[in-house]
Design a protein that fits this description.
Layout: H1 12-22, H2 30-49, H3 54-66, E1 72-73, E2 80-81, H4 83-96, H5 111-123, H6 128-148, H7 151-154, H8 159-176, H9 180-190, H10 204-225, H11 241-245, H12 268-271, H13 286-298, E3 306-313, H14 315-320, H15 329-332, H16 336-346, H17 359-363, H18 365-371, E4 374-378, E5 390-396, E6 401-406, H19 416-426, H20 432-443, H21 450-455
Parallel strand pairs: 3-4
Antiparallel strand pairs: 1-2, 3-5, 5-6
């Protein structure tokens, strides 16, 4: 790939579409293809694990009752529905346990391109190679949107909902074989549908905000395939996507140049620092969980040794994960205090850590009592940006105090073996033999099809 320079004014959308349609498996560095494989394996695991969640059961039954034409599989559901509805439910399932991969900017949440690729890939009997190329293209699309429009999150828009429709349209569109002209129409249909709101955090709406953009993008690609028309330059000029959502004021104004900056060079997949989650909760709860576990492990401390824990966090973290006394699993996933309290109940957890984040745990007297040993202090006047430093101060029963400052997404490096082990923990319901088969198929996906993955999950 060769970097694009000096994009002509008024041709941003066209330039992006030409670039994205042109991406093929053979263009991709091995590091990128291997990352897409492991992200896919993890996403499938999350879809399988999510069926125990009340929101997942609700959405799966909704799709089943529709009785729509059987085009694509609900992963782990045992039935097919229309490809757009499969994208909606699979996207929601991939987000329901809050275990999806993440980073620090919009575009690093990979559910829309992965769920779109799995759903459309199942529908079109796509090869693993075509799937990988399509997902990379979708990640490129949402990554450039996220870098250009990051200020939209300061205004309360949900990142995954904001950039996800375009990513799903690109991934789905490539698997449908859209031309450059068709993809421009697909983006013109999908881009105006992005928004979402951080106000949905702590409710089922937050889960839905991953499924809806996935469905919107897949539907936009399907309609473009049929000749549906739209604004074909929606990323260009006045009242464009970024002007509407990010705006030109604020601390992080819309930066149109980032939409095409560096395209054809190093892939967003490789530069964004995207990492899998260890804990089944909002990313902004992870720093304090990580810091507490580190203190416990390095000092050989058990829950009974701890008298009190103080958590010091910036306002942004408290805004997104504000629940002090959660009464549901959805609220527990967005409770900084509860995530740490769960460690006082269960100790250092096996990964992924999920036992604290369901309806039962939110109301369990043991967890309620443990929360009384955890204090949250919001550092007013500190950084309002997403992943600023958070501090854990553990006071032991013998009077000692141990402090750990946890920087932004600290220690997000994993070996392949560690990621595979976490995947196997998420798909225990399928049995060891099936889990091993899934690992083999997905990690050698260039020699398989999307249907081969689907067949092992139902």
């Amino acid at each position: 790939m060769t970097a694009v320079a000096d994009v002509e004014t008024g041709r941003i959308t066209r330039t992006l579409c030409e670039y994205l349609v042109g991406i093929t498996y053979d263009d991709l560095p091995r590091e990128a293809t291997e990352l897409v494989k492991i992200f896919t394996l993890e996403a499938v695991g999350h879809m399988v694990l999510a069926h125990a969640q009340p929101v997942s059961r609700m959405l799966v039954e909704y799709a089943r009752e529709l009785g729509a034409i059987g085009q694509a599989q609900i992963v782990g559901g045992g039935f097919k529905t229309s490809v757009a509805e499969a994208a909606y439910v699979n996207g929601s399932l991939a987000h329901a346990d809050e275990l999806e991969s993440y980073g620090t900017i919009p575009g690093s949440g990979l559910v829309p391109p992965l769920a779109a690729g799995i759903s459309v890939g199942d529908f079109k009997h796509s090869s693993g190679r075509d799937y990988i190329a399509a997902v990379v293209a979708g990640i490129e699309m949402q990554g450039h949107l996220g870098m250009a429009g990051i200020g939209a999150c300061d205004r309360g828009f949900m990142g995954i909902s904001l950039v996800g429709p375009a990513a799903a349209a690109v991934t789905g569109g490539k698997l449908l074989g859209l031309s450059v002209d068709q993809l421009q129409n697909g983006l013109g249909t999908a881009l105006p549908l992005g928004n979402g709101s951080t106000r949905g955090c702590g409710s089922m709406a937050h889960v839905h905000e991953a499924g809806v953009p996935t469905r919107s993008g897949v539907l936009a690609a399907q309609m473009a395939e049929r000749g549906f028309t739209s604004c074909v330059d929606f990323l260009d000029g006045a009242h464009s996507w970024g002007m509407q959502y990010a705006g030109l004021d604020g601390k992080r104004p819309y930066d149109e140049a980032k939409l095409t900056e560096g395209i054809g060079g190093e892939l967003f997949t490789l530069t964004a620092g995207i990492a899998p989650k260890r804990y089944g909760s909002c990313g902004l709860t992870h720093q304090t969980i990580y810091g507490t576990i580190k203190i416990m492990r390095e000092n050989d401390i058990g829950p009974d040794d701890i008298a009190h824990i103080e958590l010091r966090v910036p306002p942004w973290a408290d805004r997104i994960a504000p629940f002090r006394e959660p009464i549901s699993g959805e609220q527990a996933k967005f409770s900084i205090r509860h995530g740490v309290a769960g460690l006082l109940v269960g100790g250092i957890p096996d990964l992924p850590y999920t036992h604290a984040f369901d309806d039962e745990a939110a109301r369990d007297p043991r967890y309620v009592a443990a929360r009384q040993r955890v204090t949250l202090t919001v550092l007013e006047g500190e950084s309002v940006r997403g992943f600023a430093d958070q501090t854990v101060i553990v006071t032991l029963r013998d009077g000692r105090r141990i402090t750990e400052v946890v920087s932004t997404l600290e220690d997000t490096t994993y070996t392949l073996d560690e990621r595979v082990a976490m995947f196997k923990n998420t798909v225990r319901s399928l049995g060891d033999d099936t889990a091993d088969q899934l690992v083999d198929v997905v990690l050698e996906l260039e020699d398989h099809s999307v249907a081969d993955i689907i067949a092992l999950t139902n």
